Amino acid sequence: MIYQGNAITVARGGDDIATLNFDLKDESVNKLSSSVVTELEQALQALRSESGIKGLMLASAKDAFIVGADITEFHAMFEQDESEIQTMLEHVHSILNDLEDLPFPTVSAINGLALGGGCEVVLSTDFRVMAEGAKIGLPETKLGILPGWGGCVRLPRLIGADNAIEWIAGGGENRADACLKVGAVDAVVPAEELEAAARDILLRANAGEFDIQARRTEKQSPLQLNAIEQMMAFETAKGFVAGKAGPHYPAPVEAIKVIQKGAGEERARAQAIETKAFIKLAKTEVCFNLVGLFLNDQVVKKKSNRYAKEARPVRQAAVLGAGIMGGGIAYQSASKGVPIVMKDIREEAIQLGLKEARKLFAKQVERGRLTSSGMAEKLTNIRPTLSYGDFANVDVVVEAVVENPQIKGAVLRELEAEVGESTILASNTSTISITRLAENLERPENFCGMHFFNPVHRMPLVEVIRGEKTGDAAVAATVAYAKAMGKTPIVVNDCPGFLVNRVLFPYFGGFSLLVEQGADFQRIDKIMERFGWPMGPAYLLDVVGMDTAVHANEVMAEGFPERMAREGKTAIQVMFENDRLGQKNAKGFYAYEEDRKGKPKKVMDEESGKLVAQVVSSQREFSDEDIIARMMVPLCMETVRCLEDDIVGSPAEADMALIYGIGFPPFRGGALRYIDATGVAEFVALADSLAEELGPLYAPTERLRQMAADGETFYGVAKAN
């Protein structure tokens, strides 16, 4: 054994080929924490001192090669002085440069995911051999940074500037066949042949079949691009990527600038350019929040994994109520391989549900993600029926009938009599109390909520709602089913609106108050979209549907009258009463026309302005900052209350639910991280100033006041400088 550490071992084979093996103890995946990077440095030093080595193979004992750097270290690392971050980056550069400069050929045997820092490690070797199911990529821009361990330098020299820009700015994972096509890897082989193929390539290199020095020189020299080629490769890409990323995500464009500035430089100077840009991005609040988002996502996944481990597998599902929503649920289940029975009492509803599922599968075929035969096979996972005859062996039934407590209650009682005693019933409701719906059930412990967001196939969140009598087994099974469907389940406790809608409707309340005091709804939309929301509140109400919004608002007002009950009509009610329901009937705050792809496109409509004028009680001037504050404070305050009321289990789950469920701007990290970024004391002061005029919807809780007084934050870490 040449070297042995906690994560890395280096052993010499009989043919004098050494194998550096990544196998981080007590972890399911390999990641490059600061301690692992230190081990890599020590392992390379040991290799240099070993005589007679003829080659080095990098391998992994885990299913993934290396998933990247240890992101749990990022917040603390990036809070350091710029000089300390620079020292760290330069140190890693020197380690990977040592790997690249070893006096014998090197190869990476990539058996699984090689992402981020893991990808930058394999880029440092002379050759890369990839298993057929493996993927590599540089996802750093999704964290608000760029590849900082040489990825911006080595990748464009290996696969060309155009391809490198696409990989780095897009941040995606790249399959083996695509990697081979652009020259990122030298061979793709079946997994069982991987190490033999990697070893063979080293032996052939030693036999003189490959010019190792020429390969290294090309990777360490300036890019061979003339002025016109540079302009086409970089300037065009910057415009395209900037338009796609938007103004709030600077990392993709910054990465292109780094590749461009380093294109004419040797390795050392190009790495220095990369380091400088990395530090600049690492100190931004966008990076701080996107890293926090990743960590929150890990918290949510760990919690859902714990629930799912306790559940028996869902082998057969059912959805009660077809139509668009039922068809969407059936599609999602069938597409992920969980057979589903789709029942309705009307044949036309069944046909509508099947049409919806077929339409969604057809789109997958159009995009090349599914073959026609694959579509036909997956459609057989959906079994339509008008009777309960196929329900005896169903593990989970999702009730998705009309949002009416009396109808849902009657349907659930009827359903319970038709299924097995251990079958889990889950209601797809957005507002109706799960505890109330369970009142007339014989087995309320087998019942919970399963709130899908529309459209089902696109929205990642599923709220799993625990009623007062819901048992752990019901929650576990529903979480397991949501995960099997490819969704992110978050468990919440029962209350009016649950978590997401309870938080969303104070936001709409802030919108209604602004409109009443003379703010133009189109201007509000533009300001909130610039703030980072995918659509402004008026546009969002049109998408939700005015009838749905009015109903949900009534539920909220009944449940929280001191904050959410309103006197007089709101603009939302006026729209509803004038049959302006939004996109569903092509007129709401905006009118809607079909674009070339058949999707609704919003256009201005003078009639809506006249109707809104009916509720305007005064005329005031609002700054952009006033509008943002009056929209965001009630949403953030209700999120705080949900956490304090134990509706949601942690700040991480609360923030992820808002990002996945209603499109809260990801780069802002979520409502609670937004409060932390503002400063808890500053946020309380702002809320108090608004509450004096606008009432309890804006008022801070006593617990939040105490947090402000004690200097506490929701995440226990300081915001970025």
Account of the 3D structure:
With 721 residues, the chain is an alpha/beta fold. The chain has three domains: 3-283, 2-enoyl-CoA Hydratase, Chain A, domain 1 (Alpha-Beta Complex); 313-494, Rossmann fold; 501-646 and 679-710, N-(1-d-carboxylethyl)-l-norvaline Dehydrogenase, domain 2, CATH 1.10.1040. The protein has an eight-stranded mixed beta sheet, with helices on both faces. A hairpin with a 4-residue loop joins strand 2 (8-12) and strand 3 (17-22). The longest helix is centred in the middle third of the chain and has 25 residues, at 285-309. The two termini are 46 Å apart.
Note the topology:
Elements: E1 3-4, E2 8-12, E3 17-22, H1 34-48, E4 55-60, H2 74-78, H3 82-100, E5 106-110, E6 114-115, H4 117-123, E7 127-131, E8 135-137, H5 151-159, H6 161-170, E9 173-175, H7 176-182, E10 187-189, H8 194-206, H9 212-220, H10 227-245, H11 251-262, H12 267-282, H13 285-309, E11 317-320, H14 323-335, E12 340-343, H15 347-366, H16 372-379, E13 382-385, E14 396-399, H17 405-416, E15 424-427, H18 434-437, E16 447-452, E17 461-466, H19 472-484, E18 488-493, H20 500-516, H21 521-531, H22 537-544, H23 546-559, H24 561-564, H25 571-577, E19 591-594, E20 600-603, H26 606-613, H27 624-644, H28 651-662, H29 671-678, H30 680-694, H31 702-710
Parallel strand pairs: 3-4, 4-5, 5-7, 6-8, 7-10, 11-12, 11-14, 12-13, 14-15, 15-16, 17-18
Antiparallel strand pairs: 1-2, 2-3, 8-9, 16-17, 19-20
